[in-house]
Write a structure and sequence with these properties.
single chain, 149 residues, four-stranded antiparallel β-sheet, three-stranded mixed β-sheet, 19% strand
């Protein structure tokens, strides 16, 4: 089972562009001076800032399971390094410990990004990592199915 979770959505960009298009239309239709030159500067600037934000989010926070690794951004964790018993207990809802203080957050950063939940994974060497994900149940199931094959 493959798993892919994009780190950011393009939806905010499209909503913003639609609102800006409505503002341009109102500017042209309403009486008074038109500000076409200003719009030609504002729209690409705002779109560029939003696009850079989405691209950065996709590059840093995308979660994927490929053939041998769990990938979060540029960080990779070998699937064989994940403790399947701990993950099974976590998916089943049993009492398992979370992550150790100071555990690495895959993808980087000091904390789990807004809008995501940290899925604690125990490594086979006894350490732990935190995987930031929007859907920890689906990621846990996908990891379990890959570990059991």
């Amino acid at each position: 089972m493959s798993y892919r979770e994009p780190g950011a959505s393009w939806r905010p960009l499209w909503i913003t562009l639609a609102l800006l298009a409505a503002a341009v239309l109102l500017d042209v239709l309403l009486p008074g001076p038109d500000h076409i030159l200003a719009w030609l500067v504002v729209i690409p600037t705002v779109a560029g800032v939003f696009a850079l934000n989405v691209l950065a989010g996709r590059r840093v926070w995308s979660v994927a399971i490929d053939d041998d690794d769990l990938c979060v951004g540029h960080d990779r964790l070998a699937l064989k390094a994940i403790d399947p018993d701990h993950l099974q207990a976590l998916v089943d809802g049993g009492e398992v410990g979370g992550v150790e203080t100071g555990s690495q957050i895959l993808g980087g950063g000091w904390s789990v990004p807004r809008g995501r939940v940290g899925l604690p994974l125990r490594r086979t060497d006894g350490g732990s990592v935190l995987v930031p994900t929007r859907n920890p149940a689906a990621l846990g199931e996908a990891l379990l199915s890959r570990l059991q094959t």
